[in-house]
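Q: I have 230 residues here and want to know how they pack in 3D. Can you give me a structure?
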Amino acid sequence: MTYGLHPSPQLQALFRQQAFPHQGQDPEKASVVIVGLDANYSPEISENPSFFRKIVEYHADGVSFWEKYGVHHPFLLPDYPLNRTTGGVPYHRRFSWMGLPAEYARHISFIELLDMPTTGRTEQAEFWRLFSKKHAHRIDALVDRGDRRLIILSKSLVSNYMAIARKRWPIFEWVPEEFALGEMDVIGETIVLGAPHFSSTTYKKEIFEELGSRIKQFVSKTESLATHSD
């Protein structure tokens, strides 16, 4: 399958209509931001109208979707019609291993290095052709402000993409030279945290459960600080 922009005009439009393309909570409002490579979908997803309506609903309001259906992404719904071993399903299944209930929906945002939906297995040349420096600067600014926020990055994202972007352009200067699981940097009140990629089969479920506990602790403290500052 050739890698590139997803062929669905409706799916493309869902990304274009957002000032800061994301899934879940608006990243400006979120206390936990998970940075990924791209929002990758099977090309067939838009050919199933009944289920594709769930995809549209999710992108229109990811917070309400999680609260309504009890899962953070439509890939985890029981009526998902495609192969559950590919196309981003393993990624979101492992994310669910963290045990975050729907009450965390308003705290968590997913943003990607590409600001558009894709399909196929990532190819470097095409990835960089699609890469938007404007969007990268949005991510940069979000982290550089130093607001109280947890930024979660994976090793492959840091080593294979963000480090390359930093060499080519004046962006992502806060990205650590060496990846490590756990806290890698603190910028103001923003913590940059290294975590397993949710598609990785290397790590046991317990590692994702520990990450979930870290997120819960961070969100709980953030809410406590907000309450006391009111």
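Q: Anything worth noting?
A: Helices lie at 9-16, 49-60, 62-69, 89-96, 124-130, 133-144, 155-168, 205-229. Residues 4-229 form a domain with the Uracil-DNA Glycosylase, subunit E fold (CATH 3.40.470).
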